[in-house]
């Protein structure tokens, strides 16, 4: 089989699109997991990206070699069939919860633009179903189109800000102790595992050469790392302002024109959207083995059933649901990273 660079690019953009949710794009995740630790956070970002790269590539290699259809099949290879059955339900609940948060986030975003919360929720439902109509091709194409735009805007904001306020000195980050922040790096890598597992486990049949996985993994980790480093350094420059903004990104553009604020708001909505698509995509492929229905219909049904629950509100959902799955994420990350060693021992 021949190596296809274009396929690697599509895979890498899908990895980035699944990871850059509202938390990452808004700067909140970057600040909470890294920036709040000070200059030593640059080392924790590097550790997080290494873990992220390793986990993504392991999932893709399993999906490619085993030709898996959904995340449960990958889990069967990673933690064993019996334990995978028990974790299957927990993963479903986690993906449903995350999707619910994204829908509420869309409602809150549209509400800030003087629209109604309900309109924002239904716009998200319609937009996600539109991508599901085209199955895997729709998911890959969406990320190839949207992710370069999103990442370019985020990088431009950070570069523009640092050009005005000054670039950080390398000496400060080298001499800072790295120990206090490394647990947060592991937590961050684990935080993104379930969404990545849900999406990457369905892509095995799209891969023709191991090189495609290597290029996709390295490119996605490098891009995410570059954005995280720039974002982190930028936020450290205005750390006294970060606490004044629910969305730290706005601390970087507080003196910019209203057009910039509108553009950033759109980027945040797109970040919510790509994460929601990834989650529902993973759920639709999982339930397709039980329900003999098209993926778009399964995904649409899930979204419609979740609509009433969005009334709980975006902030409340984040506060209640996200901490519940911390242990689950950490366990799955650990088992994924250990999979190559366990397979070697068994072989």
Automatic annotation (TrEMBL):
Keywords: Membrane, Transmembrane, Transmembrane helix
Protein's UniProt keywords contain Cell cycle: no
Transmembrane annotation, as ranges: 43-62, 90-110, 116-136, 143-162, 182-201, 213-236, 256-276, 283-308, 320-341
Cross-referenced InterPro entries: YkvI-like (IPR038728)
Top-rank taxon: Bacteria
PANTHER family documented for this protein: CONSERVED MEMBRANE PROTEIN, MEMBRANE PROTEIN
Protein known as: Putative membrane protein YkvI
